[in-house]
Design brief:
Blueprint: H1 2-14, H2 17-63, E1 67-68, E2 75-76, H3 84-88, E3 96-101, E4 106-109, E5 131-137, E6 140-150, E7 156-165, H4 167-202, H5 204-215, H6 234-276
Antiparallel strand pairs: 1-2, 3-4, 3-7, 5-6, 6-7
Helix pairs in contact: 2-4, 5-6
């Protein structure tokens, strides 16, 4: 692992500044979009469950008038129930209903449980309040709602279990997840390309300074690095600093030339006198 990290670090160090900036642009955007996408996906996921719970709660409330809680035990009579077809429908479109008494004993299950090949394993809640959860049942995503049944005195006398399949909603969720992945990938790719272009454009003055500095020799110290005063930034300051340094060098060379010239003239005068003698 350390060798991999070392090789990646070495590879990254060999990259140019523009490529490093483009990489960090892409990485930063990827992290931010991934966090935002995860939050958006989870919010949408929870919203789907919440909306489907409302559907299951509606189904339970439609069944409540057909449940008798006045006797010693619960009983249900679905004669004339308008949604009997849903209780007979099979996988995917059916609504599966079971009724439990206060002792958690099963006293009714809808007709569509007859054709079920895989048992629906659920647990009665410990508290007398609505409880919903998701599970994988018959190779499909299912959602189950436990609805507490109260008698006239407000005491818990049983549970109504309503189960339906969320496969259409999960298909929408899967498409939404795919769209997020594609959008994040496209955004990161454009971020890297745009970051590379922007960094290259921003570092263009550095290349100009580099070329100008290479062209300046001892014979043409009067040349200067071009400065774009329309854009006042750090690179402008750098170019001005180089030009100030060149001014000092030029003045130093000129002083050295004058000193050399004066020294040569002073030496030539006695030599000429000696030769004339």
């Amino acid at each position: 692992m350390s060798k991999i990290v070392s090789s990646l670090t070495s590879f990254f160090d060999r990259l140019s500044i523009s490529k490093k900036l483009a990489f960090w642009y892409g990485l930063s955007l990827f992290v931010m979009l991934s966090l935002f996408g995860y939050f958006l996906y989870e919010t949408f996921h929870q919203s789907i469950h919440h909306n489907y719970d409302r559907h299951l709660r509606f189904e339970a409330e439609q069944l409540l008038p057909h449940i008798d809680t006045t006797g010693d035990s619960l009983s249900i009579d679905l004669t004339g129930y308008s949604r009997n077809a849903a209780l007979k429908s099979g996988v995917e479109y059916g609504t599966y209903v079971r009724l439990y008494n206060q002792e958690d004993s099963l006293i009714y299950k809808s007709p569509n449980f007859v054709d079920v090949k895989q048992p629906l394993n659920t647990g009665i809640p410990d508290r007398p309040e609505e409880y919903s959860f998701s599970s994988q049942w018959q190779d499909l995503p299912a959602r189950t709602l436990f609805y507490p049944i109260m008698d006239d005195s407000g005491q818990l006398c049983g549970w109504l279990e309503v189960t339906g399949f969320e496969w259409t909603l999960h298909e929408e969720l899967s498409r939404f997840r795919q769209y997020l992945f594609v959008l994040i990938a496209i955004s990161v790719a454009f971020s890297i390309l745009g970051g590379y272009w922007l960094s290259r454009r921003a570092l263009t003055p550095v290349a100009s300074i580099n070329e100008a500095a290479k062209s300046i020799t001892a014979t043409d110290l009067d040349n200067r690095i071009p400065v774009n005063y329309q854009v006042k930034d750090e690179l402008t300051d750098l170019a001005e600093t180089f030009n100030m340094m060149l001014n000092r060098l030029q003045k130093g060379f000129e002083r050295e030339k004058r000193f050399t010239s004066d020294a040569a003239h002073e030496l030539m005068t006695p030599l000429s006198s000696m030769r004339s003698d």
